[in-house]
Design brief:
The structure is a homodimer of 431-residue chains.
Chain A lengths: L9 H9 L18 E2 L10 H18 L11 H12 L7 E3 L3 H15 L5 E5 L4 H13 L11 E5 L9 H7 L4 E7 L11 H10 L3 E5 L11 H4 L3 E4 L14 E4 L43 H17 L1 H23 L5 E2 L11 E5 L3 H11 L2 E2 L1 E3 L3 E5 L7 H16 L15
Parallel strand pairs in A: 1-11, 3-4, 3-5, 5-6, 6-7
Antiparallel strand pairs in A: 2-8, 7-8, 9-10, 10-13, 12-13
Helix pairs in contact in A: 1-12, 2-9, 3-9, 4-5, 10-12
C-alpha cells in the first residue's frame, strides 16, 4: 500500500468513490435509510436485494405450495450447493466445504474429530485474541475429554499472548507449538483488533510440528483473500452473516481437507451425516466425504437466504474486494489519526495493512458512551467491544469512502460537543 | 373413543367437517393448490399465513433497515421467547424450554450432559422404533465415551424390540431398565408406526430405577397432549417443522427440568450459553438455567418464521387438537379397513387410539410405487418410509375429513387401476 496518499477534506472521499470499481455493488443492497452510516458489516452484513426475492420464493412457493416436495427440489442439496459457493470464496476445490449448524457447533465437531486423530498429542494451541466463544468451545472439548486433573487425558489449552490486545508476535505463537500439539486453532482475522494472520506461514509451522491446523474464517471470509487448498489447511469453520451478508445467525460452514475426510468422523452422529439417511437403518454409517460432518436437519429458510448473497462475492472477486478493503481501512486510520487522536482516541488495530482485515477498532476511555451517542443521535452504527473499542467494519461491497469520512466526522462531533455524556455506561444485552 | 361410528360415503366426511370445531383454523394456512391432499403435515407442516407476513417484516424491516439493532430489538431473546411458547404446548412451566440448533444437536447435548450426571451407570435404553437418527446420536455419544470394547467406560445401548415394527411391549422395555441405566431415551410417538407411549408411566419406571428419562417429542408436539412437568420428565427435545408448522428445518427445542439445570452443562460451550457473552471473558462460565444449553448464534430468520406459527397451536388448545386427531386417524383407519384391505394393504399403526399419535402408516408390498403414483398423478402427498409404509399425517389444524375420504379413494384408484405399475421402485434422494 505504498503510495496511498489521503487528504482530510470531504472532496477527497468523493473522488475515491468516483474511482471505486466496486461502487455499483452498493445498488445490490437494501438501503432503507440513506443517511445511516452502517459500519457494522463485520458483525451483520447488509441485506442483498436478491435475498428478499429469493426468500419470498422459498417461503411462498417452495414451502407454501411445494410443501414436502421442496426437499427433492433443491433443499436437500442446499448444504453442499451453498458450501461449494463458499468453497470458491475460501480457495477450496470441490468436496471439502459444507454449510451446517453454527460456527460453534462446527468448531466443536472439527476439534473433537481432530483430537481423535492423534490421541497421543495432548495440547491445543490458540491465542488470546481469538473469539472468546471459540476458546469456550475448546475448553468444553478438553473438559469432556477429562481435563482437568485426575483424568488419564490431561489435555492442555495454551494461548499465545496478545501484544497490547492488538496482535500476536509470531515467535510467541511458534514457541507454543510443539511435538505434543494436536491442533492449532486460530481466528484468521481477530474479532476485536482486526489482526490478520499470515495463515500460510502459520499453517506451515503447525505442520512442521506434526499438528493439525484449524482456521476460523468468520472475520475474513468475504474480506480477505483465502487460499485454503494452496496453504495446505486441514480444517476451517466460519460464519456467513458478516461479510457474506447471509442474514442474522445464518448457517455456518466448515471445511475438511479431502485427504483427512475418511479418517475423521463427527462426534455428532445424525441422519444428514449418515450414508443413506432415508434407508433408516438402525446403525450409523458415516456418509462419504465432508457430508459426514452434517448433523440434523438444516434450517432451510436461513440457509437459502444466505445462499442468495454469495453470488455478489463471487462476481466482485477476492482481489478487488481486498484492494478496496485496504484503501477503506487505511483511509479510516488516516482520518482517525489526523482528526481523532487529539480527542483521546488510539488505534486498536494493526497499522500495517498486511496485518489487518477489514475492520478497524478505535479505542477511547469513553468508548461505550461514545458508541451509544453515535447510534442514538448521529446515525452511525458501529459496534462496541469491551472494554473500550469502537469497532468500525468496512464492507467493500457497499461501504463508501464518503461514509468513512462522515463516520469520522460524526465521531469527532460526539466528543467535541460532549454528546456522549448524557448516555449511561450500563451495557445493553447485546453490544 | 367408544361410540365413534363411521360410514364409507363421502357425505359422512362432509358432515364431520361441518361439525369440526377446528375447521376455521384451515383458513390460517396457505393453500396454493386447493385440490392437493396434503397428508404430510407430520413431516413438514403447512405454511401459516402469519408466517409469510412475519418473515417479510423480519427480513425487510428488522434486517434490511434495523440491521445490527435487531439483536437488541427482539432477536436476542427469540430462543427463550419461542421456547416459552413451546413450553405451553408441552406442559412445561417457564424457564425450562429453549429453542436451539437441530433436534440432533440438542439430543447430543442432553445425552452427554445426562451421562455425566451418573457416570457409574453405563447403560442407555431406547427402542427399535426410535427415529434412527436418534439412535445414531446415542451411538455417537457412546463411541465418544470410549465404547466399544477396550475402554474403561464400556457403555451399552440396549434397544427394546418392536413388535411387528409397530409397537413396543412395555414388559420388554421395563425389563431393559435397571440399576445400571443412566438414561432412557425414547420417541414419544414413533416416526413410522405412530405408536404413542404412555409417557407418564415410562417416566415413572425410569425414575424407579434411578435413571433419567429423555423424550423426543418431534412427532407428538402439537398433536398429542404433553405434560412434561406433571409427568416429572427430566429432559426432552423436539423439532418444530411438523405439527408446529415451523418451516423446513426450523430450529428445534430442548427442555431441561428446572432442578437438574444447575447440575448439568452442555458439552458444546459457546457464547450464547455463556453467562455474559458480550463481556468476552476468555473463560467459559455457563449461563444460569436452561440458557446454558444454547451454543452458537441461532438462525434468526428460520427461528422467527417458526415462532410465528406457534400461536395457532396455543389458541386451538391441546385437547381440541387431540380430539380431532383421534377422529381423523380413526376415520382413516376405518376407511382403509373397509376399502383398502381387500387391495393388499395392512395397518402399520396401533389400532387403539390411546396408543397412536396423529399419523397412520398403511403398508403394501408395492408401497413405494403406490406413493410415487399418488404424488405424481393423484394430487396426494403422503410420505414413504421403508420398506413398505405409506405414511399419512393428519394435522388437526388443517386436515379435513373430506381430505381423508379423498386420499383413501385415490389410494384405491391407484391400486385398482394399476397406476403404480409405471413407476420405478428406484428411491429418490429424499423419500
Amino acid at each position: 500500500m505504498e503510495g496511498l496518499e489521503f487528504k482530510t477534506g470531504r472532496a477527497f472521499a468523493q473522488r475515491m468513490d468516483a474511482e471505486d470499481e466496486l461502487a455499483d455493488y452498493r445498488k445490490e443492497f437494501i438501503f432503507g435509510d440513506e443517511d445511516l452510516i452502517y459500519m457494522d458489516g463485520n458483525s451483520l452484513g447488509r441485506l442483498p436485494r436478491k435475498t428478499v426475492e429469493r426468500l419470498r420464493e422459498a417461503v411462498e412457493q417452495e414451502w407454501g405450495e411445494g410443501l414436502i416436495r421442496g426437499w427433492n427440489a433443491g433443499w436437500y442439496e442446499a448444504p453442499s450447493r451453498a458450501g461449494e459457493k463458499i468453497a470458491k470464496i475460501i480457495g477450496a476445490s470441490p468436496g471439502q466445504t459444507i454449510v451446517a449448524d453454527s460456527t460453534s457447533v462446527n468448531l466443536f465437531k472439527l476439534v473433537m474429530a481432530a483430537l481423535s486423530l492423534q490421541p497421543e498429542r495432548r495440547r491445543i494451541v490458540s491465542d488470546a485474541l481469538n473469539f472468546p466463544s471459540d476458546l469456550y468451545t475448546l475448553q468444553g472439548c478438553l473438559q469432556m475429554l477429562g481435563h482437568p486433573a485426575g483424568s488419564q487425558h490431561d489435555y492442555q489449552l495454551e494461548l499465545a499472548p496478545a501484544r497490547d490486545g492488538i496482535s500476536v508476535d509470531y515467535p510467541d505463537l511458534y514457541s507454543a507449538i510443539n511435538e505434543d500439539t494436536a491442533l492449532v486453532s486460530l481466528s484468521h482475522v481477530a474479532f476485536k483488533s482486526g489482526f490478520l494472520y499470515d495463515a500460510a506461514a502459520v499453517t506451515e509451522k503447525a505442520h512442521q510440528a506434526g499438528a493439525l491446523i484449524l482456521w476460523d474464517l468468520s472475520h475474513s471470509a468475504g474480506a480477505v483473500p483465502i487460499e485454503l487448498d494452496r496453504w495446505g489447511v486441514d480444517l476451517a469453520v466460519g460464519c456467513t452473516y458478516k461479510y457474506l451478508n447471509g442474514g442474522p445467525g445464518a448457517p455456518a460452514f466448515l471445511y475438511v481437507r479431502g485427504e483427512l475426510q475418511d479418517q475423521m468422523t463427527s462426534p455428532i452422529w445424525a441422519w444428514f451425516g449418515q450414508r443413506s439417511p432415508f434407508a433408516f437403518d438402525l446403525d450409523y454409517q458415516p456418509a462419504d466425504g465432508v457430508q459426514r460432518f452434517l448433523a440434523g436437519t438444516p434450517p432451510i429458510l436461513s440457509l437459502l437466504a444466505m445462499e442468495a448473497g454469495l453470488d455478489l462475492q463471487l462476481e466482485a472477486g477476492a482481489e478487488r474486494i481486498r484492494s478496496k478493503s485496504i484503501k477503506l481501512t487505511a483511509y479510516l486510520i488516516y482520518l482517525a489519526d489526523q482528526i481523532l487522536t487529539p480527542l483521546g482516541f488510539t488505534l486498536g488495530t494493526p497499522g500495517d495493512p498486511a496485518q489487518r482485515g477489514s475492520h478497524v477498532s478505535l479505542r477511547h476511555a469513553e468508548g461505550y458512551r461514545i458508541s451509544r451517542a453515535l447510534i442514538e443521535e448521529m446515525g452511525v452504527l458501529p459496534d462496541f467491544r469491551e472494554p473500550d473499542n469502537i469497532r468500525l467494519g468496512l464492507a467493500p461491497l457497499y461501504s463508501s469512502f464518503s461514509e468513512v469520512w462522515e463516520a469520522i466526522d460524526r465521531l469527532r462531533r460526539v466528543v467535541d460537543e460532549g454528546r456522549y455524556r448524557k448516555y449511561s455506561s450500563q451495557r445493553l444485552a447485546v453490544t
